[in-house]
């Protein structure tokens, strides 16, 4: 990890071309909207499935976001998801897990740094699972990844769209008190199901108490994110955080914003004021860097008894803020609280873009932007 810097006012000498895989989908559109206005990046290739390739973006894409239609890129021609057709030094992947497992390694092998929103490689031992405010030191896994897989580039993942709202407040508590156990129930927005997503007759006036494959991700990803990077005979590896997580994931009729009800048992005794202070004073590891997508306030503790609320709080800091509130004692564990974040920004597109910014600022992406 000798090449990793610890303070930076990084800015590339010129804008860096990027590729967006799965550019026509809901998360792909959010990637494009961010990249089209980004001070460091510009969209060089919009890649999608064979049925979209060859069409203009406006022909291939049903645009769902407010603001400038197609982010001003409606005339760009969509290309196939292959390095031969769409190679850039930085690739943002909004692919589903199945296609991602086949396609992302092709770009990494050719030398691209793939910042993936897919779950395909998140739990692989040599792939960083990043929330840059919490664990940027895990970029150290990239050296192992390149050596093990023979790639010129690499894959970096961001967590499941629910995990970030859990891992962020847990990081504040773990660093100060330690954590023994976590119970979490998620109330997840319908935008997390993509488009067209959940039929209106299923979700309006209803709560669906099952989201396929979601609970195992929520129960395992925080432990990797909050784990410790250690050196061993095989190189650097993650020792997962030792606490146990029990999750129930539900779908609710909210458009954007996943709300989590979290109960924790701490390893050390704490007062409710000390827990509130841990949330309020938490210092994100992005603080020394000037990153375009980093929120002004990463973890925002709200004292009002009825906050956070998706309708009132989810768009703060361009959807990149995690809001925490309703802190109180728990009669079974120690404390319970509510955590809220934007699932398709903080939990998807914005998260991957911030990962790329952090990697550049820390000098991880050798030769890119220099």
Concise structural overview:
This protein is of the alpha/beta class. 28% of the residues lie in helices and 22% in strands. It is built from twelve helices and 14 strands.
Folded structure, characterized:
Helix 4 (97-110) links the parallel strand 4 (90-93) and strand 5. Helix 6 packs parallel to helix 8 (214-225). The chain is built from twelve helices and 14 strands. The longest helix has 14 residues, at 97-110. It is 28% helix and 22% strand. The strands form three sheets. It has a six-stranded parallel sheet, sandwiched between helices. The chain is of the alpha/beta class and 370 residues long. The chain starts with 15 loop residues before the first strand and ends in a 9-residue tail after the last helix.
């Amino acid at each position: 990890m000798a090449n990793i810097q610890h303070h930076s006012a990084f800015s590339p000498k010129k804008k860096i071309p990027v590729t967006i895989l799965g550019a026509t989908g809901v998360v792909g559109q959010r990637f494009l909207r961010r990249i089209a206005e980004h001070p460091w990046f510009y969209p060089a290739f919009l890649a999608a499935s064979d049925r979209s390739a060859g069409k203009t973006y406006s022909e291939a894409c049903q645009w769902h976001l407010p603001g400038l239609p197609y982010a001003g890129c409606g005339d760009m021609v969509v290309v196939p998801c292959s390095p031969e057709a769409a190679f850039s030094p930085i690739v943002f992947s909004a692919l589903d897990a199945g296609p991602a497992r086949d396609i992302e390694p092709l770009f990494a092998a050719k030398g691209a740094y793939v910042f993936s929103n897919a779950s395909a490689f998140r739990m692989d031992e040599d792939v960083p699972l990043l929330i840059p405010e919490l664990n940027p030191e895990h970029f150290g896994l990239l050296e192992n990844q390149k050596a093990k897989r023979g790639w010129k580039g690499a894959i970096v993942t961001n967590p499941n769209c629910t995990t970030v709202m859990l891992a962020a407040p847990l990081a504040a508590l773990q660093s100060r008190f330690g954590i023994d156990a976590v119970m979490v129930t998620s109330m997840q927005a319908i935008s997390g199901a993509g488009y067209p997503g959940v039929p209106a007759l299923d979700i309006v006036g209803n709560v669906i108490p099952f989201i396929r494959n979601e609970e195992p991700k929520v129960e395992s990803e925080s432990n990797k994110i909050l784990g410790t990077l250690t050196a061993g005979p095989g190189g650097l590896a993650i020792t997962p955080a030792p606490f146990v997580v029990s999750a129930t994931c539900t779908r609710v009729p909210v458009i954007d914003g996943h709300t989590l009800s979290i109960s924790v048992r701490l390893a050390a005794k704490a007062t409710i004021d000390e827990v509130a202070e841990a949330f309020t004073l938490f210092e994100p590891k992005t603080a020394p860097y000037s990153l375009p997508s980093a929120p002004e306030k990463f973890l925002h503790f709200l004292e009002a008894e009825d906050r956070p609320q998706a309708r009132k709080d989810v768009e703060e800091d361009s959807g990149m803020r995690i809001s925490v509130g309703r802190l109180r004692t728990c009669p079974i564990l120690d404390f319970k609280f509510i955590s809220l974040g934007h699932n398709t920004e903080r939990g998807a597109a914005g998260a991957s873009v911030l990962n790329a910014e952090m990697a550049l600022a820390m000098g991880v992406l050798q030769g890119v932007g220099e």
